[in-house]
Amino acid sequence: MKKYFSMLVCIVLLAASALVAQSNPASDAAAPAPQDAKPAEKASTPKIPRPNMGDESALQQATFSQAVADALLRRLVHGMQGHNLPQTKSMFLAERLEPNFEQHMEAAFNYYDSFHLYYKIIQLSGEGEPKGTIIADFDLESRPQQIEQATHRQHARMRLEVERVASAHGNPWRIVAMDPEHFFFEY
Q1: Rounded-to-integer distance, Cα 54 and Cα 160, Å
Q2: Which of 3, 99, 108, 134 supports an S-S bond with 160, CB 3.0-4.6 Å?
């Protein structure tokens, strides 16, 4: 008798769980899509990130500060990680850097499919002046467009000199000197 009673309880529990699963709409959402269903197509235009208003405000300051340094480096990271050549170019005053700097940058953007840049500010100098110096540790991972090529990884403690320069639009703060000079765009 115990054996039949246990079987009956099991059957009732299985039937109850099947009824609960049928009446629960969330269980349908977790079910795999049918094989002939097409995945949703990606939007044809990428989303444009909203500018960080704190960074915009910091970059309009007349004198160098921690906020200016943070905003400059964040904008550099966003430009490189977004593979946005115009934004990345806008961070540098190319005529004050080594000859062919912009050509090296363009070549790197053409060769690499993506950049992942990380930094940690070590020291600032020149606060309260129209120019300053940022010493920071950088780690850069650059992935070539050719998938059979190895990812290029490098680390450096860099010295960046920045200045507020006359600009008709946008960010008046620019990187005017770097040591080492070829860190960001070498391959």
Answers
A1: 22
A2: 134
